Amino acid sequence: MKEWSGGKYAPLAFEAKTSSVVYPSDSQRQAGLFLSGGIDSLAALRINKKVYPKEHPGHVKDCLLVHGFDIGGVIERGMKYHVFDRAKAALSGVAEDAEVNLIPVDTNIRHLCDERNLWLDKFFGAVLASVGHAFVTRLYMVYIAS
Asked: I need a labelling partner for 51 at 20 to 30 A (CA). Which of 14, 63, 79, 103 fits?
């Protein structure tokens, strides 16, 4: 971030408890997809279901719906839990029809730095990847629609 911003942003300090994690093999994990309810993620889910048979390792079985990015991410707009609940309810039907698990995820990472240009241009993909990594014991790959 320091290099991308010409020195404007310093690296963030993270505090995390350490633990030992046993990583299952790829054959024990499955594919996931970030599902926002937007046209890109809905199209990605549909294409995935049409292209990959259920037994294929690339066939999506879990969809991650993240609170704290678009919904609840902008500090001055508030956490908007009611909007997230509405999105969960709407996407539950989509998930049921697509035969995937809808997994709600909550994060406050956008609140570390909510500058719009940084978030959209440099931070968004890395933060999506970090959420995907949080599911390393469940998912071996996560699709990000674009």
From this structure: 103
